[in-house]
């Protein structure tokens, strides 16, 4: 089995890549359409919640999926994830108000969390170690076509037809890959009977409670940050929310993750640090281009295309046989690339500088993410003991979703608090991206801690 070529796993690989392609299309398309739909639903100031609710709900799905995969196999989590993800898209597509749309985003986020972790476990179950870097490279490549087609299609639908189709088109397209993949999935636990490392039912329940606590803390943090200027209530909520996030997160990740202990704990932590730094900035790029440079939604979304192409290029490079650098150095290089790009982005916020320069800059920035994120997946599976791939993949995705939620939540709260609908937000965007770039320097230093313990 270990000597079999990648083509021997074609059906499973096609199902994984196609599902990730649909999730990627939804992410890119919604990012493009969000400025339009929030304007139509009178919720521009709350645009950050459109992203953060999805990611916060994804946290719960990620936690449940890891435990579920280890105890019952991958078939049930994938099935439940597909149902929730598809149902959430339908609710969003028919939502009469922004509040209803947020409910749909929450359902879809929970489904996406179930699916993403389950895909990692499927890769660990099916593919030998030597093929995993190529598989992760192909899953990153699944973002290319959505990145090229998604912004233009979503922008055209949102402005010329209706933004609702951005959500509704995803549902029927998910059926064929689901039918192809489900028969190939494991329906039993990954561990042997009596294995002391197996999760007990009480541990599974405890993990679920912790996941809900993290989600509630993330949403509370964003709410409190947006109200810091309105009295002491916002500050109290922020402190309580942070405590809730930490209390829920610590039991769900390897010991020492918050302290950047060498090896797997630092790899898990880095995944979240990279996600927060990158997505906190990216979520507001289309809005900046629309408001500051007068771009149409489809034009603004093309910058996300550049990001996906750059991400795929970085992921491709890390999987090449000639790439001899230790993977912890790829984290350092990736963080430096991202930090330099974010600082440079502040020079392109408003005319007379052309907004189109953001496209190649963001592609370069995303190259750093491609080098780094694929490497976190490879190292997590390499550092995992047999039977623990599910919970460690869950911890990795939990860190990813938490980092993205905090990054988007903090920038979204800042935007909600200081958005100026009359004078423009150039100064606010500058502060947001300079802060993220400075944070990238710290992430680069943390990359040295990812070496094996």
From TrEMBL:
Gene3D superfamilies: MFS general substrate transporter like domains. It is found in: Cell membrane. Keywords: Membrane, Transmembrane, Transmembrane helix. It comes from the Bacteria. It comes from Kineosporia mesophila. The chain crosses the membrane at residues 49-69, 81-100, 106-123, 135-157, 163-182, 208-226, 232-252, 264-290, 296-317, 329-349, 361-383, 395-418, 430-448. Residues 12-453 form the Major facilitator superfamily (MFS) profile domain. This is MFS transporter. Pfam families: MFS_1. It is a multi-pass membrane protein.
């Amino acid at each position: 089995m270990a000597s079999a070529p990648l083509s021997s796993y074609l059906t499973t690989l096609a199902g994984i890549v196609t599902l990730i392609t649909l999730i990627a299309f939804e992410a890119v398309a919604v990012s493009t359409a969000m400025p339009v739909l929030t304007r139509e639903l009178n919720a521009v100031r709350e645009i950050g919640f459109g992203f953060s609710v999805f990611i916060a709900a994804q946290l719960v799905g990620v936690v449940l999926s890891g435990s579920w995969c280890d105890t019952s196999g991958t078939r049930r989590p994938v099935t439940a994830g597909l149902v929730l993800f598809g149902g959430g898209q339908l609710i969003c597509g028919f939502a009469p108000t922004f509040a209803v749309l947020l409910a749909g985003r929450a359902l879809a986020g929970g489904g996406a969390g179930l699916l993403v972790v389950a895909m990692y476990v499927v890769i660990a179950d099916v593919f030998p170690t030597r093929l995993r870097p190529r598989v992760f490279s192909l899953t990153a490549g699944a973002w290319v076509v959505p990145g090229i087609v998604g912004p233009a299609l979503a922008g055209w639908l949102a402005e010329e037809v209706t933004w609702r189709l951005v959500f509704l088109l995803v549902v029927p397209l998910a059926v064929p890959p689901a039918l192809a993949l489900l028969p190939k999935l494991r329906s039993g636990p990954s561990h042997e009977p009596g294995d002391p490392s197996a999760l007990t039912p009480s541990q599974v329940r405890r993990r679920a409670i912790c996941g809900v606590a993290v989600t509630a803390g993330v949403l509370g943090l964003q709410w409190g940050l947006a109200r810091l200027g309105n009295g002491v209530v916002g500050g109290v909520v922020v402190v309580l929310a942070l405590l809730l996030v930490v209390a829920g997160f610590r039991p769900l990740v390897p010991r020492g993750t918050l302290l950047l202990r060498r090896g797997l704990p630092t790899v898990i932590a880095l995944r979240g640090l990279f996600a927060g730094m990158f997505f906190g900035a990216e979520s507001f790029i289309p809005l900046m281009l629309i408001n500051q440079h007068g771009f149409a939604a489809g034009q603004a979304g093309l910058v996300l295309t550049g990001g996906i192409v750059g991400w795929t290029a970085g992921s491709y490079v890390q999987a090449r046989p000639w790439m001899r650098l230790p993977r912890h150095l790829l984290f350092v290089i990736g963080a430096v690339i991202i930090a330099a790009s974010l600082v440079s982005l502040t020079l392109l916020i408003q005319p007379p500088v052309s907004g189109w320069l953001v496209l190649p800059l963001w592609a370069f920035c995303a190259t750093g993410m491609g080098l780094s994120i694929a490497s976190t997946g490879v190292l997590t599976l390499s550092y995992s003991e047999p039977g623990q791939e599910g919970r460690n993949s869950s911890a990795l995705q939990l860190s990813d979703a938490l980092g993205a939620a905090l990054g988007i939540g903090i920038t979204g709260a800042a935007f909600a608090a200081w958005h100026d609908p009359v004078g423009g937000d150039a100064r606010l965007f500058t502060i947001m991206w300079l802060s993220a770039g400075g944070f990238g320097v710290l992430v680069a230093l943390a990359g040295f801690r990812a070496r094996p313990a």
